[in-house]
Amino acid sequence: MRERWLNAARRFDRRAFLAVPLAAAYAQDVTFTTGVRVVNVLASVRDKKGAIIADLTKDDFVLAEQGKPQTIQYFSRQGDLPLTIGLLVDTSMSQEHVLVAERTASLRFVDQVLRVDKDRVFVLQFDSRVVIKQTLTNSYTKLEAALAEVDTPTRGELRRGIGGGTVLFDAVDTGARFLLKDVPGRKALILLTDGVDYGSNSSLAEAVEAAQKQDTIIYSILFADRNGDAGRGALVRLSHETGGAFYQVSKRLSIEQIYALIQNELRSQYNLGYVSNIPVQMSEFRKIQLTTRQKELIVQARDRYWARP
Predict the structure, then answer these.
(1) What pLDDT sits at residue 94?
(2) 21 SS3 class
(3) What DSSP letter does each residue of 265-302 carry, written as one string?
(4) Regarding beta strands 298-301 and 120-126, do their DSSP bridges make them parallel or antiparallel, or are they unpaired?
């Protein structure tokens, strides 16, 4: 595993990565007493028709860890916590005809979502390499410039063997491990891709775990030019196992409409926090079950977290 990770690390654009201080350098708000490990769970709730329910209280939720009931000690439904978003854009040749639409919609989304006093966004593209175009920033100008440079490989790059793959799982791994490590507040990765991975050092399971360990949810947008829905299964798993959502661009659902749905969900999330009553003896994944007392409602949240002593 270590050798594979080192090999993957050599493929990243280190100059871009080092150009701007990492998120860990930003000031962090102290919320809880030192030494108290609070497990935070972000959740969206919908009715059977898919409409978001945004008026629940703490008492409407039931939470368990490893099958044992837990007491919800912290609760918020205002959506005012800092939001950190990573835009991960597939720039392999299979995406060349949809890339302009992806860039345009992404820029509009950033313009509508970004609160410069609270939120930060980074931009990453991937084909046969993972290239960080912009590390975490609250500058719309920098994000606009970065998205403008997101593009498929040139013919010259292809002749040199650059850009011939699609390291989707490496991209998720990089975004979670490097750019979202120890970042406070809510964190989300938005994947724009056809979902087909070719050439990653990381596996699908490792990409999922990287996001879970950083308490990061994934929104996958399947936007296919050539591969149809061949990558659907991987994207569904990435989203489902991190508490995010999967969308597919179609004639009935445009990428702009999908971004609007994601924006609405991000602004309607519940944040629940608890201190586990199960002692932690070693680092491990633990099962979480979050439901509502209203059985007809559907809760969208991660189903496990990384517990550390």
Answers:
(1) 81
(2) coil
(3) HHTT-EEEEE--SS---S-EEEEEEEEESSTTSEEEE-
(4) unpaired
User: pTM to 2 decimals?
Assistant: 0.85
**Interior angle at CA 180, CA 177 and CA 183, nearest 5:** 130
> What distance in Å separates the CA atoms of residue 180 and residue 165, rounded to the nearest whole number?
24
Query: What would the CATH number be for the domain defined by 2-27+80-266?
Result: 3.40.50.410
Please say whether the beta carbons of 207 and 173 come within 8 A. Answer: yes
What is the pLDDT at residue 188? Answer: 96
Handedness of CA 224, 226, 229, 234 (dihedral sign): negative
What count of Cα atoms within 13 Å lies in the side-chain half-sphere of residue 274? 22
- Nearest CA to 227 out of 257, 193, 191 is that of 193
> Distance of CA 7 to CAs 96, 164, 180, 292, Å?
27, 17, 21, 44
Q: Distance (Å, rounded) from C-alpha 207 to C-alpha 95?
A: 21
Length of the chain counted residue by residue:
309
d(CA 244, CA 156): 37
Q: For residue 23, what are the CA distances in angstroms to 4, 42, 43, 181?
A: 25, 20, 24, 8
DSSP one-letter code for 166:
B
What pLDDT was estimated at residue 30? 32
Give the pairing type, strands 39-46 and 270-274. antiparallel
Closest alpha carbon to 23 in 100, 93, 97, 119: 119
Token reading at 125 = 């593209």
Each domain of the chain, given as residue ranges in start order, spans 2-27+80-266, 39-77+273-307
Stretches where the chain sits below pLDDT 50 are 1-34
